[in-house]
């Protein structure tokens, strides 16, 4: 069978042949990482099979012989490779599309791994609701790893009948895509051959249930994107919360089946932020509420069934939830390490879900201890340790959300008996005390009876219900401080911009790479050199902002280009000056100019662009107030 495509591996690749099989497993188990129209697959257990099993599996004698010949075709492989009676390892995977256009028909593949010949063959077939199977002869394909002269390796793609290939872009990808997209990725994965620090996505859930529910909820709540009143990216936050809600709803549905529960689980979302997750869960029938220190504009858009409280949360007896089934921490920042503790102390039956983001310890920012791990992995391990010490059998999973922080931790059951609650509480208190930084500070034990219920202050006459479990915890401020230089006095910003720009424009080529072109772009300054121009009181103001002077200069994108720690005057004639400029759309005819051109007002040679080509106003006659209407808030949009 002629090869369809071949890619050679980099010279002296040390990861083969093991890396080849690692790459193949990614394609088998997680095809959705490259085929975005798939949600995932279900795979059967692998088993060793021989010739007779393959013949019975394929049923059609002529096709079976063709497939056996296809797999047995030697391509520079050692002789006598198949002395075993069962030379292949077989499994079956069922595709789970994101959008099911197949009805009740299931699309599957028989996977035959041949470790002797370093090849894997995929035999697709369809199965209807009555179990009738239809093989897709034209779509049978194979990957083979070849070891050629010396240390040279190559990966080949073979197809049984390429002239009969059928494609729908989902279960049956296009043939050019296999060669131009998938094959290079297999080579890269095989070369890197590195395992992830974390588990595969959705490892605790049935993927098919997740896929169906996610598509349903995405369609149901997509209108929120159009009426999002916050300054954050609506698509990211809406679809991320839809995905998290989907995960929890499927997780809870599985729990009800497992435990024989009839009522839907209750929840409290600690640090609920925009409250969208609370709204979706409540809308889907789960009783619960969200608590956050700061009210959001979007809260007014939810209906009365969405319970949201504006309140600072301090880990204490006042914030226990003995009647709640699940506590949620979705990017809960400084509350993240406390959530397993609060769940454990609320009641023996209380469970939790936490999605860590920012790195916080109990009383301060988390400090790294292991340089061999990524900071994120180290922090996940820390929260896992907190969970285990708090008494939970802790499970880790990875969500499918548009975020780099996707690993969640779930505590569904305890690692001790309810009769051992007092000893478990002793361990919790001792562990929190060990993390305490304040000298002489003490960590209160929670009032837990031996039956696992909370005393709420009754157990210790010297402790009030409001007593804190530790000195030093600092909840976030109710008023969010804007620290991106946007709140600085306008006169201060304008003065800094003018001062730095004048110095750069005054530089010659000898001073710092000044331009000798007809329009003076000056030279360049390092950010540190620019800081040296500032007065001490100005620097003190800038130090309070995130990024300081560099952030201020980057914010003034019209004037400066900051790259690699160097500050340049931006030349708007040069569209290749930065990657951001290449994405900027050309000025539309008749566009309103709502900001003055800095170069027209301050550059000795004025703006290098003609007025009709410049996006900024050349003089007051061109300046127009913005007519962009304010986004209307539809109060019934989410009901």
Automatic annotation (TrEMBL):
Residues 591-621 form the C3H1-type domain. It catalyses: uridine(44) in tRNA(Ser) + S-adenosyl-L-methionine = 2'-O-methyluridine(44) in tRNA(Ser) + S-adenosyl-L-homocysteine + H(+). A zinc finger (C3H1-type) spans 591-621. Its EC number is 2.1.1.211. GO terms for biological process: tRNA methylation. One of its GO terms (cellular component) is cytoplasm. Residues 433-470 are annotated as: Disordered. Keywords: Cytoplasm, Metal-binding, Methyltransferase, S-adenosyl-L-methionine, Transferase, tRNA processing, Zinc, Zinc-finger. It is an enzyme of class 2 (transferase). The keyword Chloroplast does not apply. One of its GO terms (molecular function) is tRNA(Ser) (uridine(44)-2'-O-)-methyltransferase activity. The keyword Glycoprotein does not apply. Belongs to the TRM44 family. Adenosyl-L-methionine (AdoMet)-dependent tRNA (uracil-O(2)-)-methyltransferase. This is tRNA (uracil-O(2)-)-methyltransferase. It comes from Champsocephalus esox (pike icefish).
């Amino acid at each position: 069978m002629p090869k369809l495509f071949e890619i050679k591996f980099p010279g002296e690749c040390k990861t083969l042949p093991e890396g080849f099989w690692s790459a193949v497993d990614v394609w088998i188990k997680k095809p959705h990482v490259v085929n975005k129209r798939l949600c995932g697959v279900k795979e059967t257990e692998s088993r060793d099979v021989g010739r007779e099993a393959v013949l019975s599996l394929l049923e059609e004698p002529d096709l079976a012989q063709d497939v056996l010949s296809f797999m047995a075709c030697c391509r520079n492989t050692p002789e006598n490779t198949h002395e075993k009676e069962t030379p292949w390892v077989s499994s079956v995977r069922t595709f789970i599309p994101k959008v099911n256009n197949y009805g009740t028909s299931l699309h599957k593949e028989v996977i035959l791994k041949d470790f002797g010949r370093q090849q894997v063959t995929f035999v697709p077939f369809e199965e209807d609701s009555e179990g009738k199977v239809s093989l897709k002869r034209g779509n049978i394909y194979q990957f083979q790893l070849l070891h050629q002269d010396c240390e040279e390796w190559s990966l080949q793609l073979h197809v049984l009948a390429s002239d009969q290939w059928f494609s729908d872009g989902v279960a049956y990808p296009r043939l050019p895509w296999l060669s131009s997209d998938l094959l290079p990725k297999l080579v890269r994965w095989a070369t890197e051959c590195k395992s992830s620090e974390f588990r595969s996505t959705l490892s605790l859930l049935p993927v098919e249930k997740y896929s169906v529910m996610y598509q349903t909820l995405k369609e149901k709540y997509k209108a929120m994107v159009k009426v999002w009143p916050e300054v954050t990216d609506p698509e990211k936050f809406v679809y991320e919360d839809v995905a998290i809600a989907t995960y929890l709803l499927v997780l809870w549905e599985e729990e009800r089946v497992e435990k024989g529960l009839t009522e839907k689980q209750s929840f409290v979302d600690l640090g609920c932020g925009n409250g969208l997750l609370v709204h979706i869960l409540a809308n889907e029938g789960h009783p619960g509420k969200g608590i956050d220190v700061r009210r959001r504009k979007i809260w007014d858009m939810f209906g009365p069934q969405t319970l949201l409280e504006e309140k600072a949360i301090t880990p204490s007896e006042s914030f226990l939830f003995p009647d709640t089934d699940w506590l949620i921490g979705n990017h809960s920042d400084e509350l993240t390490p406390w959530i397993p503790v609060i769940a454990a102390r609320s009641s023996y039956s209380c469970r939790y879900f936490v999605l860590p983001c920012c790195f916080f310890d109990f009383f301060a920012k988390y400090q790294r201890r292991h340089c061999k791990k990524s900071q994120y992995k180290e922090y996940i391990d820390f929260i896992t340790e907190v969970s285990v010490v708090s008494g939970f059998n802790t499970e880790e999973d990875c969500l499918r959300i548009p975020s780099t922080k996707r690993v969640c931790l779930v505590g569904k059951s305890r690692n001790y008996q309810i009769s051992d609650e007092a000893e478990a509480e002793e361990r919790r208190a001792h562990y929190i005390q060990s993390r305490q930084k304040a000298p002489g500070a003490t960590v209160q034990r929670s009032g837990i009876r031996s039956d696992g219920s909370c005393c709420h202050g009754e157990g210790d006459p010297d402790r009030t219900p409001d007593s804190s479990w530790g000195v030093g915890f600092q909840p976030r401020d109710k008023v969010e401080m804007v620290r991106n230089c946007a709140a600085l006095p306008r006169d201060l910003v304008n003065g800094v911009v003018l001062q730095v720009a004048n110095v750069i424009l005054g530089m010659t080529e000898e001073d710092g790479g000044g331009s000798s072109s007809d329009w003076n772009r000056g030279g360049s300054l390092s950010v540190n050199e620019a800081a040296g121009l500032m007065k001490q009181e100005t620097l003190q103001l800038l130090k309070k902002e995130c990024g300081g002077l560099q952030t201020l200069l980057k914010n003034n994108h019209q004037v400066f280009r900051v790259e690699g720690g160097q500050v340049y005057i931006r030349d708007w004639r040069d569209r290749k000056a930065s990657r951001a400029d290449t994405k900027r759309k050309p000025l539309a005819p008749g566009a309103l100019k709502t900001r003055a051109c800095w170069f027209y007002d301050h550059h000795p040679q004025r703006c290098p662009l003609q007025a009709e080509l410049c996006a900024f106003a050349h003089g007051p006659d061109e300046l127009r107030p913005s007519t962009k209407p304010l986004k209307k808030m539809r109060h019934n949009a989410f009901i």
